[in-house]
Amino acid sequence: MTDCEELNLLKQEVLKASSREALDSCFKKWREENLLPLRKKLQNTSDKEEKRRIGLLFKELKESSQKIYQLKKEELSSWKNISCEPRKSFRIEKKEVDYESVNYLSEVMERVSNFIEKYNFDYLEESEIVRVSDNFDSLLIPENHPARATSDSFFLTSSGKKKLSEEFMLRTHNTTSTLKILEKFKGVNFKGASFGTVYRKEDNDPTHLSQFTQLDLVWVNKNLSIEELRELIEALLEELFKGFEWKKIYCLRPSYFPFTSPSFEVDLMCLCKGDEDCRLCKGTRWIEILGCGFLRSEILEKTHPNCCALALGLGIERICMIQNLILDIRSLYENNFKSIVKEK
Length: 344
Prior knowledge:
By secondary structure, the chain is of the alpha+beta class. The chain folds into two domains: 5-72; 102-343, Bira Bifunctional Protein, Domain 2 (BirA Bifunctional Protein, domain 2), CATH 3.30.930.10. The protein has ten helices and eleven strands. It has helices at residues 3-16, 20-44, 48-76, 104-118, 132-135, 175-184, 226-241, 297-300, 316-324, 337-340, and strands spanning 101-103, 122-123, 129-131, 168-170, 190-199, 211-221, 250-257, 260-269, 286-295, 308-315, 341-343. It has a seven-stranded mixed sheet with strand order 2-5-6-10-9-8-7, with helices on both faces. A two-stranded antiparallel sheet has the order 1-11. Strand 7 (250-257) and strand 8 form a beta hairpin. The longest helix is centred in the first third of the chain and has 29 residues, at 48-76. Keywords: Aminoacyl-tRNA synthetase, ATP-binding, Ligase, Nucleotide-binding, Protein biosynthesis.
C-alpha cells in the first residue's frame, strides 16, 4: 500500500467519526497499523539510502495524518455549536496593558516543547494521582526511603464507607510517566518525554516549592553510552539557554538514584566566577540543574530486556530561576505581574 492510499484510508475512517472518542479510536488504530511498523522498519534498517527513504516517508505520513486528525478534531469541537445572546449595552473600562511581554515559565515550557519536537521525542501526559506502588516500588525505591513517610508525601485516604482497592498518592516525581512510556512502546526503540506537576510535602521557601513542574526524558536503544548521554545533555542545554549569557559549561558528576545505575547529576557553571556572596551557587561556582543516568535492568526486563535506556529529569522552575537570575522561586507564582514577565 502506498503512502497516498494509507492517507486516503485514514481520511475515510476519520469522516465516519461522529465523536471525539470515535476519532481518537480510529486514529490510534491507524497509527498502530501504519506508523509504528514503519518506524520499527526504520530503526532496523542499516542501509543509509534505504533509511533515508523510509525516514522521509515516515515524516510525511506522520505530519499529514496529524493534519487530518486536527481538522476533524476542530470540526467536532463543541464550542462551535454554542450560541449566545448579544448584550444590548456594555461598558469598557480603560486599563493599561503591557504588550510584547512573555511569562518566564511559559518561555521555558515553549523551549522544552521545541526540543521535544526537534529531536523526535514522543510525548505522553500522565495523571498526577498515581499508585503508591508505581511511585516507589516499580522504581526500586526502598521501603526505608524518606519520601515514603506521610510527612514527606501526599497520600490519598478513603472517605466514608467507600474504600480504595489500592493505595494512591500525588506523584512525587514525573518518572512514573516513564514507566507508562516503556509499556506503550514495549519492544521498540524510542525517545519519550513527559512533563507535569509533582508534589512534595515541604515548606515553601526561596529554593523549594511543595508543587512544581518536572520534565522527564527517556531514550531506549540497544547501544547507548555516556557519549550519547552527553550529547543529549548538551542538546537540551543549548535549547534551554540559547540567547542567554550563560556559557553552557557543565560538570557531569557521579550521583545516586534508586532507579538508575550509573547515576549522574549535571551542574552548570555560574556567572559569578566564584563570588562567595552569590545566592545562586553559594560561592561554589556550580549550580545543580538536572539528574540523569541509565535505567536499571530490573525496570527494563519486562518491556525492553536487551536494551539500554537513558533517563533525564529536571525542574522547570529551577531552569527559569537560573535563566533570569531569580533568587526566590516563590515569586514565579505570586500575583505580581512585574516579577513573572519580561519584555521581548
